[in-house]
TrEMBL record:
GO annotation, cellular component aspect: plasma membrane
InterPro entries: MMPL_dom, Mycobact_MmpL, SSD
Stated name of the protein: MMPL family transporter
Subcellular compartments: Cell membrane
Keywords: Cell membrane, Membrane, Transmembrane, Transmembrane helix
Top-level division of the source organism's lineage: Bacteria
PROSITE patterns reported in the protein's UniProt record: SSD
Segments crossing the lipid bilayer: 221-240, 245-268, 274-292, 313-338, 344-371, 409-427, 567-586, 593-614, 634-655, 676-695, 707-732
Domain annotation SSD: ranges: 237-370
Mode of membrane association: Multi-pass membrane protein
Length: 775
């Protein structure tokens, strides 16, 4: 491989004015294609074969159209209305303001008028108790009142502040969530302005109030700005840092346009481009940084700049190929989870990674030729004084490596203890999909959540819908069966109250609404879902009924279970594939193995740090702690695993190169560390900067993911790859590079170290390097 890349590097450097226009035509072509055929992105968070689908089947059977309420594409909205402090909504002036709002909604052009909207006060007044009174006039201390009036859209059950909060639902004529325009949101929100001017608090929840824009934009620019500063320091010059930035823009632009063109064929989630941006920018800069750094060194030993470009691509380029392959494997592996949006996010990231490799190998040498002698000018004093590739200079990297070599056991113990302590909070990991409670506190969606919680209890934000199928129950036993179901539901300590049964027209179906005491993402609520489902078998045996549990909370709990259950097989498949790939790179069993085990340590520590900051709210860095997004762990594993193997390849291939060229194992570790420390440090800082910039997004998912990725890279690069792995290599000595003879014979020699390339450059193409003997 090194020889082929060497030849291409020289060709692209020499024929730069052919290669550069080809890339320009490719970008223009992708841009025209994307503009012509791309369609709006669509978020689809549905998953097949969830337990909640059973309830959907029963609803479709006995309540046609009822399951539409759980369609993520449906455009709905719920107005949450609160009375001024010390007043009730039933006061004449407040009731008049609500009636006026209802009249306006019934006349709004984007509202579905198939069924007229009714005032929540009117609805509550129509509901009768068992003794014939209404829910507004009945004795609220009566034992049966709670059961009779629990379904009222007015908080009549609230003992401290009754009749102070109400909900008002509306269905909109907009076909899909993706079709909602800013004007639609403005109309839906502003229609309540008169009610607000009358003294009421009116907030809006539901899909009509949610933004559908993918995060990104300013974060990428900030990440690139930090990357520029880091590369100026790394190269000691002002011009060279712009090469990686150019490749990053080209690679990300090409990947994004290809993804957008794909929307004409299939629906692609909005977060696909978000992930592609994070990966594309970071990898493109990292790979370019790696190759340009090697090119800078080769200029000092090669006869011509063209020869230096070929040598840089033949050596560093080989490492880039395999580093990129590990990322592509890790991201493509997300498809095994079986979740559509994760599959597309993984594929989008893999496309971005592939373009990062492609531009590094094809566009990069042409840019080196185009900039020519001006590339490393003007030099910056002090910064450019020492070349880390110069063996005569004692660099900071070499000092650290020598310390690790002298006390590898101490370095190893220190790294493991630090990661172990950080990992401890991970045992409290609580997963959940982002809901209204995770929205920024200044949004109407979040304020509606808080109003509803204040008036109806937190569980009212995540009602469980229990759909009962009575088709196999004798008609004369159906009422008894439903009574048994209700008694079972109200018996749970975590259930606040139960609404229903609501019987179907055919009499063979019914629904209950179970309102938990805790919120949608609370573990107690998820446990309640399991308890309710667990009671079905006994009721089936006694009455012959069947039921299912659905609703946003139940669906989210099902998604959590599926994603958690996918982590182990995902790690096994991806790590196994990467392990085999790294055996090819390092021609060793132990080096890939300790690399993978080190990753598990850094992942555990990353989870711990994320739980500590975002879930538990420690150190006051996050004002609004919330559960960790349920798909974050598996995505984090995929992303950071690929990046971790990047650093493993970047740093350890140079150590192996020194070892293959005859240095003792410990000296090879020190020399390779000396040569690779600056570029790996720079690459890691750039990655951390790009990911950290996403913490500035308002979207809680983007914020959490940016933090977790930044911490993951920080811990893996600086503690695992630059401390634990070198310490283990020093302790293992020659044994680190051992491989069974039978395996050595069947594993192809891909020559990442460039040994064949060195022989070719010195004119001795017939001679093959002697294999390294390990005693």
């Amino acid at each position: 491989m090194s020889v082929y890349l060497y030849r291409w590097g020289k060709f692209a450097f020499r024929r730069k004015w052919l290669v550069l226009p080809i890339w320009l035509v490719l970008l223009i072509g992708l841009g025209v294609l994307s503009s012509a055929i791309s369609q709006p992105m669509e978020d689809d968070f549905t998953m097949p074969n969830l337990p909640s689908e059973r309830a959907t089947e029963i609803l479709d059977k006995h309540f046609p159209g009822a399951s539409d309420a759980f369609d993520f594409d449906a455009v709905t909205g719920t107005y949450v209305i609160a009375a001024p402090e010390g007043q009730k909504l039933t006061d004449p002036n407040n009731e008049a303001a609500i009636n006026a709002l209802v009249d306006k909604l019934n006349g709004l052009d984007i509202v579905d008028h198939e069924k007229q909207i009714e005032s929540p006060i009117t609805t509550a007044g129509k509901l009768e108790t068992s003794d014939g009174a209404t829910c507004l006039t009945a004795d609220r201390t009566a034992e049966q009142f709670r059961a009779d009036c629990s379904g009222a859209p007015l908080n009549v059950l609230n003992t401290e502040k009754p009749d102070t909060v109400a909900t008002l639902g509306a269905k909109f004529t907009i076909a899909k969530f993706q079709d909602i325009t800013p004007e639609d949101r403005e109309k839906a929100y502003d229609i309540a302005d008169d009610a607000r001017n009358a003294g009421l608090t009116v907030e809006l929840s539901g899909s009509i109030a949610q933004e559908n824009a993918a995060p990104g934009g300013s974060a990428e620019l900030m990440g690139m700005g930090v990357a520029l500063i880091v590369m100026i320091i790394a190269f000691g010059a002002l011009v060279a840092p712009f090469i990686p930035l150019i490749t990053a823009v080209v690679g990300l632009g090409a990947a994004t346009m290809l993804i957008m063109a794909g929307t004409s064929i299939i629906s692609i989630p909005t977060f696909t481009t978000f992930l592609a941006s994070m990966i594309g920018i970071a990898l493109s800069i990292d790979y370019a940084l790696f190759i340009v750094s090697r090119y800078k060194h080769e200029l000092t030993v090669a006869d011509t700049p063209e020869e230096a470009a070929g040598a840089a691509l033949g050596t560093a380029g080989s490492a880039v190929v395999f580093a990129g392959l590990t990322v592509i494997i890790a991201l493509s592996g997300l498809s095994i989870v079986g979740v559509k949006f994760l599959t597309f996010m993984g594929i989008g990231g893999a496309i971005a990674a592939a373009f990062a490799v492609l531009v590094a190998l094809t566009l990069m040498p042409a840019l080196l030729g185009a900039f020519g002698k001006a590339l490393f000018k003007p030099k910056l004093p002090f910064i450019a004084k020492h070349d880390p590739e110069d063996d005569s200079v004692v660099s900071n990297g070499q000092r650290v490596a020598k310390w690790i070599g002298k006390a590898p056991a101490v370095a190893l113990t220190f790294g493991i203890v630090v990661l172990g302590l950080l990992a401890l909070p991970a045992v409290n990991l609580n997963l959940g999909l982002p809901g209204d409670e995770s929205a920024p506190t200044d949004t109407t969606v979040r304020q509606a959540y808080e109003l509803r919680t204040d008036g109806f209890g937190e569980g009212s934000n995540g009602v469980l819908q229990i759909a009962v199928d009575l088709a196999d129950v004798a008609p004369d036993r159906r009422d008894a069966a439903l009574d048994a179901v209700r008694q079972q539901l109200v018996s749970y300590s975590d259930m606040d109250y139960v609404i229903g049964p609501n019987k179907s027209e055919d009499g063979a179906g019914a629904t209950f609404d179970g309102v938990p005491k805790s919120g949608p993402n609370n573990q107690d609520t998820k446990d309640l879902v399991k308890e309710v489902r667990g009671a079905e078998s006994a009721l089936t045996d006694e009455y012959g009924l069947e039921y299912g549990v659905t609703g946003t909370t139940a669906i989210f709990a099902d998604v959590d279970d599926v994603l958690l259950g996918s982590i182990v097989p995902y790690i096994a498949i991806v790590a196994g594939a990467a392990f085999l790939l790294l055996i090819l790179v390092f021609r060793s069993i132990l080096v890939p193995l300790i690399g993978a085990l080190g990753f598990l340590l850094s992942m555990a520590a990353t989870f711990g740090a994320t739980v500590l900051i975002f879930q538990e709210g420690k150190f006051g860095l996050i004002a609004d702690p919330h559960p960790i997004v349920s798909f974050l762990p598996i995505m984090l594993i995929g992303l950071v695993f690929g990046l971790a193997m990047d650093y493993q390849v970047f740093l350890v291939t140079r150590m192996r190169e020194e070892y293959v060229h005859g240095k003792p194992a410990k000296e090879a570790m020190i020399s390779g560390y000396h040569h690779g420390a600056r570029v790996v440090t720079s690459a890691a800082i750039i990655m951390i900067s790009v990911f950290s910039a996403f913490m500035l997004e308002s979207d809680p998912t983007a914020k959490t993911m940016g933090f977790a990725l930044a911490v993951g890279v920080l811990l893996d690069a600086f503690i695992v790859r630059m401390l634990i792995i070198p310490a283990l290599l020093a302790l293992l000595g020659d044994a680190a590079w051992w491989m069974p003879k039978w395996l050595d014979r069947i594993v192809p020699n891909i020559d990442v170290e460039g040994e064949k390339l060195n022989l070719r450059r010195h004119g001795d193409v017939a001679k093959e390097p002697e294999p390294v003997k390990i005693s």
